[in-house]
Write a structure and sequence with these properties.
Blueprint lengths: L11 H25 L15 E9 L2 E9 L4 E6 L4 H6 L3 H15 L12 H18 L7
């Protein structure tokens, strides 16, 4: 027999108390991790728009003209005139070309900011952009995360 044999005596009470505190420590650490963990996958509606078709009316010399903006959840799909009469076309010949120029830029950039206007259509284009902004304001999702 070896003289180096040591016998360790553990009291059951001390062992149970140690295991109990170790278990509570692990539970506390897990609780803190779950409490302060980021809430990355919450069901927040992040879409910019409520899908649909929105119109804004422009009045030009007692003639009403509707600008229609079609949007999906996160994209501006199309911009067009709805009830463009011959009177408006005759009296304001730049309306259609201004809308075409502006709508191409807006759909491409998905924004009404930093648009380029032709010199001969500047005021007409600004009038149309204001109408488009009004329609987009109707379409905005109030729950969108900005």
């Amino acid at each position: 027999m070896s003289a180096n044999t040591k016998i360790v005596v553990l009291k059951m009470k001390n062992l149970v108390i140690t295991l109990l505190f170790a278990g509570l420590g692990i539970i506390l650490i897990l609780l803190l991790i779950f409490m302060f963990k980021g809430k990355g996958n919450e069901s927040v509606n992040t879409s910019a728009y409520i899908p649909g078709v929105y119109t804004t009316t422009i009045t030009l010399n007692n003639q009403e003209l509707d600008v229609e903006v079609s949007v999906s959840r996160d994209k501006i799909r199309s911009i067009r005139f709805v009830n463009l009469s011959e009177t408006v076309t005759t009296m304001f010949p730049l309306m259609e070309s201004a809308l075409e120029s502006v709508s191409v830029q807006i759909i491409e950039n998905q924004s009404t900011k930093d648009l380029l206007y032709a010199d001969d259509m500047k005021y007409t284009s600004e009038l149309l952009v204001n109408a488009i902004n009004a329609a987009l304001a109707k379409a905005e999702n109030p729950n969108a995360a900005n």
